[in-house]
Amino acid sequence: GAMYRCKNLLPLRYRKMFANALMLPQFDYLDTIYSKSSKTKLKELDVVYKKVARIALDVPRQETRIAVYRDMQWLPLHLRRQVHLSTYMYRIINNISPSNCMNKFKYVSGGSRNSIRCNLYIPKSKSLKDFNYLGAKCWNTLPNDLREVEDVKLFSKSYKNRLMASIINEPEYSENNIFSEFHVLPPEEET
Questions:
Q1: Within 13 Å of residue 51, how many CA atoms lie on the same side as its CB?
Q2: CA 138, CA 36: separation in Å to the nearest integer?
Q3: Minimal CA–CA distance to 178: which of 133, 142, 129, 141?
Q4: Using CB atoms within 10 A of its CB, is residue 180 exposed (0-12), middle (13-18) or buried (19+)?
Q5: Model pLDDT for residues 115-133, shown as the tens digit of each residue
């Protein structure tokens, strides 16, 4: 409400700052928890998220979502949740979180391709909403070079940047709000 009413009074720079400082934390708060909500509820959150970005940029409704997200430097909500869950998993794997969290995950053993990549064992889950299931599945989608980053902030920033580049450069990209499916990055091109 307030953001919409003052959009003509504030320059673009300040509207973006307002959205980043006051609105974005509302979406990020406990997003790994509400990611388990129904697809309908997640869609409602997406609508509000896009509306905030469009108001901040003062663009028409017809503007593509990807262009709006690119201009705001925001990831779509489902990818923000993926970055946050991956960052939490990074902390667990690297013993930066409480020790009782690491006991929930086990590496795949044996001579399989998954054990060579140091993937986590994905336990069975009837609801596909268990943290052990989602965390292991999310971690296993990460490329090896990201897993080996030394610092959690650098990990999070690198992952966010690569996801953003991926969706901008992928012409057939479509949002997927299914909580148990994760966007897989294309292999990084060697320079």
A1: 10
A2: 14
A3: 129
A4: middle
A5: 456 788 888 888 888 888 9
